[in-house]
């Protein structure tokens, strides 16, 4: 059966017309997005996760629209299908730290509670800096090679500090999170934040939060990032052991691994220049964020000592 015809039957909709085949369509209730899922367990995780985050935070998420029978999805020959509201108007970042803090803080809190009983997550790969360093090619630009060789020693220091922090925090649990990247996924409905969650596999790691905060810092600067951390802390105890655990994640030099992998697959001089520029930018953002986060975590301690 044609997928639009099946949607008509399952949801009681009419006047349907594709905007983009198998992705978005017009209906009498506005534009809708279709998502196809091959993994039913992942789909079930996303249904439950969206419901919990939305109910606990009050923030709008692209939850699964229920069929006429009350189901969050249906099955077709291409797999399981979910339907979502498609919102186009972007949500602003300027002076909206409270909204973002409520969303991210709730996501972290729910993710931590899931750590006991959620088994549907992807394992993150550990960073082997020695193996990464050994991947530097002899034929890359000599100046780029020199920069990477010098960066290696700082990267080693960052890994050592990260492991030292994590060893002191053991055995504190990590939250289970799905991707928080792409701030462009934030839309608005009548001035309210609407977060588009995607369909990524969850991971037991702070890495999605790190990617989010690095993008936030790059777009909005230091003052806004501090305000956001303060707002997140209202919903999730980030000041304390979990903040230190997150700091250990921010210390890990993934950008060093990424640049070597990209250089390995690139042969053109122009491509190499672009890759190195991207590395410089990410390296400085990562370094600045670590310093900001360290100062933010120590702020209360300094105030207490000063009294």
TrEMBL record:
Domain of life where this protein originates: Bacteria
Name by which UniProt lists this protein: Uncharacterized protein
Organism: Anaerobacillus arseniciselenatis
Lineage: Bacteria, Bacillati, Bacillota, Bacilli, Bacillales
């Amino acid at each position: 059966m044609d997928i639009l015809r099946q949607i008509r039957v399952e949801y009681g909709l009419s006047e349907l017309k594709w905007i983009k085949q198998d992705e978005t369509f017009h209906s009498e209730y506005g534009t809708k997005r279709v998502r196809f899922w091959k993994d039913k367990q992942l789909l079930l995780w996303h249904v439950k996760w969206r419901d919990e985050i939305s109910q606990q935070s009050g923030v709008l998420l692209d939850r699964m629209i229920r069929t006429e029978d009350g189901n969050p999805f249906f099955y077709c020959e291409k797999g399981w299908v979910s339907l979502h509201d498609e919102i186009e108007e972007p949500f602003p970042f300027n002076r909206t730290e409270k909204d973002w803090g409520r969303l991210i803080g709730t996501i972290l809190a729910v993710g931590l509670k899931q750590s006991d009983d959620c088994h549907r997550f992807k394992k993150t790969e550990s960073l082997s800096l020695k193996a990464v360093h050994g991947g530097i090619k002899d034929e890359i630009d000599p100046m780029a090679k020199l920069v990477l060789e010098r960066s290696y020693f700082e990267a080693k220091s960052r890994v050592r500090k990260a492991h030292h922090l994590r060893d002191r925090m053991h055995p504190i649990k990590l939250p289970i999170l799905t991707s928080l990247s792409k701030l462009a996924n934030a839309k608005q409905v009548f001035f309210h934040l609407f977060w588009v969650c995607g369909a990524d596999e969850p991971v037991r790691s702070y890495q999605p939060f790190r990617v989010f905060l690095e993008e936030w810092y790059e777009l909005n600067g230091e003052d806004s990032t501090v305000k956001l951390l303060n707002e997140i802390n209202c919903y999730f105890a980030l000041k304390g052991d979990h903040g230190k655990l997150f700091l250990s994640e921010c210390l890990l030099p993934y950008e060093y691994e990424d640049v070597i992998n990209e250089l390995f697959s690139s042969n053109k001089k122009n491509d190499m220049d672009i890759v190195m520029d991207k590395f410089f930018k990410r390296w400085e953002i990562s370094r600045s964020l670590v310093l900001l986060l360290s100062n933010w975590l120590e702020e209360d301690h300094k105030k207490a000592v000063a009294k």
